[in-house]
Amino acid sequence: MSKSNIINLGIQIVPKSKSLDSYTLVDKAIAVIQQSGIKHVVTPFETVMEGTQEELMGIAQRAQQAVLDGGADEVLVYYRMQIRKNMDVQIEDKIGKYK
Questions:
Q1: How many domains does the chain divide into?
Q2: CA 44 to chain centre
Q3: Alpha-carbon distance values, 40 to 10, 14, 31, 66 (Å)
Q4: Which of 7, 49, 87, 99 could pair covalently with 40 via S-S, beta carbons 3.0-4.6 A apart?
Q5: What is the domain range of residue 31?
């Protein structure tokens, strides 16, 4: 796989805080993803992003840091990636027919 292949990365960030609302903290992570300009789909359980693995991991790290900076005591982060050897992975190929 070349570094320029497009992959899908699903990220679920679960903030832990004794005093702050979890949804408000998750919104901080989603804002980072939205501001990145990459293609993404927000679902009730995770956000799926499309891009190179290198750029998506950078966005994911900034998103989790935004939650920590927003006041979370800790975060649990779950990743799922789909990577093809010599082909791009595109969100549209998987869910386009359902629009």
A1: 1
A2: 13
A3: 9, 18, 12, 18
A4: 49
A5: 6-86
How many CB atoms neighbour CB 60 within 10 A? 21
User: How many residues can be counted in the chain?
Assistant: 99
Q: Residue 38: how many CB atoms within 10 A of its CB?
A: 15
d(CA 31, CA 6): 22
Domain containing residue 50: CATH number: 3.30.70.930
Reading the block at residue 86, the tokens are: 């010599």
Convert the pLDDT of each residue in 45-81 to its tens digit: 999 999 999 999 999 999 999 999 999 999 999 999 9
- pLDDT, one tens digit per residue, over 7-44 is 999 999 999 999 999 999 999 999 999 999 999 999 99
Domain assignment present for 22: yes
